[in-house]
């Protein structure tokens, strides 16, 4: 059974930094693209950043220059370094991954709350 578990959310003041982590566990053959999404109250879930198995990255315009996505293939993990945080970054952050295993597909974590106070 494949599982994704996020950690690292919390409360931070505007201008501060947080680092989110997400680790995949289970019988995993290979992980393709990993990504972070976020969902603010009353809004749709949006892509924040993604990283391919070849480490190519993409970012939402709203976070370019402030957030950095990275991954550790040996740990089956993805990270999101968030700098210069703004109140509008407040949301539940979810990681997902395209995983090849006995049951392949897109898997999601349970989410971690990030709150940025002004």
Structure write-up:
With 118 residues, the protein is mainly beta. It is built from no helices and 11 strands. It has strands at residues 3-7, 10-13, 18-25, 28-39, 46-51, 57-59, 67-72, 77-82, 91-101, 105-108, 112-117. Strands 2, 4, 5, 6, 9, 10 and 11 form a 7-stranded mixed sheet that branches. It has a 4-stranded antiparallel sheet with strand order 1-3-8-7, with no helix packed on it. Strand 9 and strand 10 (105-108) form a beta hairpin. The chain is globular and about 45 Å long.
Mean pLDDT equals: 97
Low-confidence sequence ranges: none
**What level of helicity do the residues show?**
under 10%
Order of helices and strands: EEEEEEEEEEE
- Structural class, by secondary structure, is mainly beta
Based on DSSP secondary structure assignment, what is the total number of beta strands?
A: 11
Give the biggest beta sheet. Answer: 7 strands, mixed
